[in-house]
């Protein structure tokens, strides 16, 4: 299939390009390197060095024996999006060109507005370009498990049956996001759902949990093919941060009690699931929702798992409960469904320790690189708007 990955330079995009190419798909990409700039703005860099795009493309060609068409530019420019869809004629479009950070959207009004306008505009442009030039293509849009929040009910995959005053209907499950970023994903989901109804487009909305892990697979001996791995407070997700903290000799920063529960997924599983979604498109006009995570864990479980695997490497990280900079429930029910991907053939990683082990092994040569940006390991963006690192030192 011809698959266009919007946001191919990011953590998931660069890994997915390789996964799809290894399965014989024709892959194209676009990016404007926003992710590199945001992480720099946070005073950090990727723990695992990332090569410039020209080198990445060269390594890709050497590894897979064919070039990846690549467009550098901003998806907020509709002409740019239209041009790619017209020239490449994708059968599937994977939309990873959004700003993925809750803390980044909590910095101030400019960042909140940027995250929402960027995420909504890029999605709109893809929908309109598909309608105009590729109405039979399949949009795979990255949503998030965080759209649902933590309701005191089990969470279905997108829709549920409701009975109210004697009548029944199948309705979207209520969304109760916990950050301006997560709300941007809710608004994007609504727009995609409506475009499917209005224009008969086919879309899959992936409600993905928190991804963790280094490298798409073990084959990447060529550093130019490595995907990024962030550790700063805004773009580093919890498990990746814990592994970087352990390697850098920094305490693991557990926010609040650590009893919060979330769905998590290793990077290779995320690649497997996105590939399943690409290769098994929904019917025209169908808006399909997939809850994408391997399992539900409590945050404190990760602190203990990472500390125990780190111990095998002679590292002895402390676990530090810090004042929670976010506004989130810490004691709550959490039982989301995730059956649809299993029906498509998802084979989850059963044993998580090897994923943590290979991540820590990949990070160890870069311990100093992480230490040089150690300030970025501490949070100072708070949901209540006060910004200070003092209490986290
Ligand atoms: N947390 C810590 N310590 C840290 C960092 C985070 O305890 O050092 C806690 C947070 O308070 C939160 C949980 O870990 O309860 C997850 O935080 P996170 O930063 O790892 O992830 P989150 O903000 O939820 O967002 C990430 C991705 C986002 C994706 C989402 C999936 O950045 O793009 O949408 O995971 S989900 O969480 O299911 O909504």
TrEMBL record:
Gene3D superfamilies: NAD(P)-binding Rossmann-like Domain, UDP-galactose 4-epimerase, domain 1
A Pfam family reported for this protein in Swiss-Prot or TrEMBL: Epimerase
UniProt xrefs under InterPro entries: Epimerase_deHydtase, NAD(P)-bd_dom_sf
SUPFAM superfamilies assigned to the protein according to its UniProt record, in alphabetical order: NAD(P)-binding Rossmann-fold domains
Signal sequence residues: none
NAD-dependent epimerase/dehydratase domain ranges (all copies): 4-289
Family: Belongs to the NAD(P)-dependent epimerase/dehydratase family.
Protein name (record): NAD-dependent dehydratase
């Amino acid at each position: 299939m011809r698959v266009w990955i919007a946001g191919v330079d990011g953590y998931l995009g660069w890994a997915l390009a390789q996964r799809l190419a290894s399965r014989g798909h024709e892959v194209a990409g676009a990016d404007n390197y926003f992710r590199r700039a945001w992480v720099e703005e946070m005073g950090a860099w990727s723990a695992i060095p990332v090569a410039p795009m020209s080198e990445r493309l060269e390594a890709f060609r050497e590894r897979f024996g064919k070039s990846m068409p690549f467009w550098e530019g901003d998806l907020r420019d509709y002409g740019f999006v239209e041009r790619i869809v017209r020239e490449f004629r994708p059968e599937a479009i994977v939309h990873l060109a959004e700003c993925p950070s809750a803390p980044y959207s909590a910095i101030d009004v400019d960042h909140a507005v940027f995250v929402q306008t960027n995420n909504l505009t890029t999605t709109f442009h893809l929908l309109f370009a598909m309608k105009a030039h590729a109405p039979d293509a399949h949009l795979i849009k990255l949503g998030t498990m965080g759209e649902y929040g933590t309701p005191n009910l089990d969470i279905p995959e997108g829709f549920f049956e409701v009975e109210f005053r004697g009548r029944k209907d199948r309705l979207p499950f209520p969304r109760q996001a916990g950050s301006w970023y997560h709300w941007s994903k809710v608004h994007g989901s609504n727009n995609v759902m409506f475009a499917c109804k209005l224009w008969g487009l086919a879309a899959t909305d992936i409600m993905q949990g928190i991804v963790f892990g280094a490298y798409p697979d073990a084959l990447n001996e060529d550093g130019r093919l490595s995907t990024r791995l962030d550790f700063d407070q805004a773009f580093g997700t919890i498990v990746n941060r814990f592994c970087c903290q352990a390697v850098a000799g920094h305490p693991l920063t557990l926010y609040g009690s650590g009893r919060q529960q979330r769905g998590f997924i290793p990077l290779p599983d995320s690649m497997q699931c996105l590939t399943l979604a690409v290769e098994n498109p929904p019917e025209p006009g169908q808006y399909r929702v997939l809850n994408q995570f391997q399992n539900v864990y409590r945050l404190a479980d990760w602190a203990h798992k990472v500390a125990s695997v780190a111990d095998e490497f002679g590292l002895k990280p402390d676990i530090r409960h810090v004042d929670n900079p976010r506004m989130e429930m810490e004691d709550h029910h959490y039982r989301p469904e995730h059956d649809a991907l299993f029906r498509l053939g998802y084979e989850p990683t059963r044993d998580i320790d090897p994923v943590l082990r290979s991540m820590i092994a990949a990070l160890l040569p870069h311990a100093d690189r992480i230490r040089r940006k150690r300030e970025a390991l501490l949070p100072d963006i708070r949901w209540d708007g006060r910004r200070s690192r003092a209490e986290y030192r």
